[in-house]
Every structure is written in structure tokens, then in C-alpha cells.
Give the backbone structure.
Amino acid sequence: MTRILIDTDIILDFFFDREPFAENAAKILSLCESKEIKGFITPVIISNVYYLLRQTAKHEKVIEKLKMLVSITEILVIDRDAILHALNSNFKDFEDALQNYSAELDKEIDLILTRNTKDFKNSSLSVMTPDNYMKIINARL
């Protein structure tokens, strides 16, 4: 089973129904729910998504959405090693560095899905957009 870190932008595309990206975001989360892929997020993603959703919805509604997200994904660890790697990396964005090193240090993540592939150019992992990933999945069917 493919193990994928799903970046914040994809989660936000789904929750905010951002077009034209929402459809692929929904498909990716559906693949997680049906256990066709194993989706991962990080504590940073949960925190950022909470903060942004809270701008438009009440706490209880946001918590409900996050519980749904956590029920279909796994959560990677961001520990001291991941933080030190991020601090000492060439990543321009610290949050992306944290995501990347939590995935790299997990040693079992196959792919990072993000719309901002250039932000992960320093990653040792495969990085792909949701659009390209869905094209590959659809070609297999």
C-alpha cells in the first residue's frame, strides 16, 4: 500500500472547496478512507488547518472536521530529530521542512503530495501534485 504525506494545501483545498483543486483533494481523502492508500498528516497540519478553519467556523464544527480527518489518516511524529533536520536544512519554508523531515525520518513514506512541489525540491522523497498522482491512479484502473 502506498504511504503518502498529504500536505496542508490539499487538506485546505478539500475543506474550503477550493476550485479547481477540491475534486482531486476529495478523491485523495476518499482513497485514504477506503484504505487504498495510507495517508499521513503531521501535528503542524492539524494546527494550521484548525487555525484557518476557525476563521470561518465555530470551534465545535472545526473539531468535528478534524476528527473526521484524523479518522482516515495517520499522524507522523515531529520529534527533536525532525526539528533539527528542518532547522539545518536548505528548505526556504520551515513548515515544509518539518513536514518533509517527519516523512523522511519515518522511513516508510513513499511520496509527498502537494500543490507546491517546488517547495520540496530539497526532499529525498518523491514529490507529486494531486493532479499528477490522480492521473497515475486513473491510468491503472
The longest helix spans residues 59-72. The mean pLDDT is 96. The domain at 3-136 is CATH 3.40.50.1010 (Rossmann fold). Residues 83 and 130 are 26 Å apart (CA to CA).
